[in-house]
Amino acid sequence: MATEVRLAVAGSGKTQEIASRIEIQDSGVRSLALTFTVNGQNEIHSRISSNNSFSHETMGWFTFLLKHVVRPYLPAVFPNIITRGLCFVDSDSQIPKGRSGWRYYINDEHQPYSTRLGILAKKVLRAAKEAPIRRLEEIYDQIYIDEFQDLVGNDLVILEALMESSISVFITGDVRQSVLQTSRSDRLNHEYRGVNLVDWVRKKEKQQKCAVTYSNETSRFNQIIADFSDQIHDPKLTLPNTISTQTRETLHDGVFLLDSNSIQAYVDRWNPTILWSRSSQRTLPEAELMTFGASKGLTRDRILIIGTGSIKKWLKSKDLLLPKSASGFYVATTRARFSVAIAIDKATATYDKLHPDFSNSVTFWRNEH
Fold first, then answer.
1. Most buried of 156, 209, 275, 311, CB within 10 angstroms?
2. pLDDT class for 26, splitting at 50, 70, 90?
3. Contact assessment for residue 305 and residue 332, using Cβ atoms and an 8 Å cutoff
C-alpha cells in the first residue's frame, strides 16, 4: 500500500518525521512536502539540509492545487481562461453574488477565490480525466503532507486521488488540532470536518486506499498534561492514550485551576503565556497574549488559559465540548511544557464540584503571597 496516514498527538514530532524521511531518501527520489500554512512550510524548510534541496520541493496546499491541477488543465473546463495568482477570501460572503460560469470560481483579475479553489480543482481533475494525477506521477516519487487536518471539503477528493496514484504518499496530522481549514464554505464531506476526519481516514483504510498508523508519544509536555488533554475530545474517537517522554520537573508542574481574581498574581509568579478563545472585555495583565488558534505550532514553558463558560461547565460535568471548542482548548492545553493553568470566575465553587475524572490531574492554585 503506497499511502500511510499517521495520526499523531501534539508534540510527537510530526514535522520532524517528514524532515527525517526526506533526509534519508535516496538521492534520486523526487519528493514534495505540502502543508497549508506558511509557518508550516517554513518549519519543514528549516529542518531539511541543503543536501536534499535539488530533489525536494516544499509548497503550500493552495500553491499545489494551482500549479499542478488548475493552471495546467483549466482549459478542460473553461477554455481561454488563464489564472494569475490567488484571491484570498475568508468565506463566500466576501464574493459578489450572482457570479456564474468561470466567474463563480475566479475574480475579474483572473485570480481563483481561495475558498472555492478546492471545488475548482476537483472540477478540473474530473474534466481532465485524472490527467493531473498522471502528470504528478511523472514529476514526483514521494509526496509528504503535514497537518492534513486543515484540509476540508473537495480537498479530500484530491487527497483520495493521490492515495490511488502510484506515488508514495505519507500523510500526518492531529485531528484534535482542527482549528484551521482551507475553506469555511466548501460543504462537500461536511460530515468529515474537524475531528471527524478520523472517520474518513478509517473509511479509506477499509477501502484499502491507505494504511493508518499512530504516533502517541509526546516529548513536549509531562504526563499530567497528557492525561488531561486526552479527555478534552469525545472518547468515541478511540485514539490511543498519549504517553509523555518529557520527564523534566520544575517547581510548578501539571494542570491548575485558579480564580480570575488571581490572574495578576499568577502571572507575576509564573510568567505564563496567556491564551484565550477570542477577544473579550476582560482586562488582562501584561504578558504574551494570543488566541487559541494563533498559538498552534508553538511551545511555551507555561500557559494560562482564560476559561470560557463551556470549559467551566466541562470541568464539572464533563459534557462534551462542541468539536471546534474542543479543538481550540486542546491546542491551547498542549502548548505547555510544564504547567497549564485555567482561570475562571468563582473557581472555588467549580473546584468543589470538579468531575471525579480530574481529581488526580487538576490542582487548585491559591495566591498565598
1. 275
2. confident
3. yes
SS3 content of the chain, % helix, strand, coil (to 5): 40, 20, 40
31 forms beta bridges with 56, 142
The per-residue DSSP string of 237-297 comes to G-PPPPEE------SS-EEEEEEGGGHHHHHHHH-PEEEESS--S----SS-EEETGGGTT
Q: Tell me which amino acid residue 307 is.
A: G
**Burial grade of 255 (CB within 10 A; 0-12, 13-18, 19 or more):** buried
Calculate the alpha carbon distances from 119 to 116, 143, 150, 158, 281 in Å: 5, 21, 16, 10, 39
Q: Tell me if residue 226 falls in helix, strand or coil.
A: helix
169 phi/psi in degrees, rounded to 5? -120, 130
Residues 331 and 221: their CA atoms lie apart, in Å, by 12
Cell triple for 236: 468515541
d(CA 205, CA 265): 51
The edge-to-edge listing of strands for the beta sheet with 211-215 is: 56-60, 31-35, 142-145, 168-173, 3-8, 211-215
Count the neighbouring beta carbons within 10 Å of the beta carbon of residue 322.
Answer: 10
Shortest CA distance to 92 belongs to which of 115, 123, 120, 109? 115
| Residues in CB range of 322: below 8 A, 6 or more apart | 310
Q: Is 312 left (phi over 0), alpha (psi -120 to 50) or beta?
A: alpha
Hey, how many other C-beta atoms are within 10 angstroms of the C-beta on 154? 24
What's the grid cell of residue 221?
Answer: 509536555
DSSP-derived secondary structure for 17-60: HHHHHHHHS-TT--EEEEESSHHHHHHHHHTS-GGGGGGEEEEE
Which 3 state secondary structure label does DSSP give 4? strand
Alpha-carbon gap, residue 269 to 341, rounded angstroms? 12
Encode pLDDT of 41-75 as tens digits. 888 888 887 655 568 889 999 999 999 999 999 99
pLDDT digits (tens, 9 = 90+) for 92-106: 899 999 999 999 999
DSSP 87: B
Per-residue pLDDT at 160: 97
Contact 93, 116 (CB under 8 A): no
DSSP 11: T
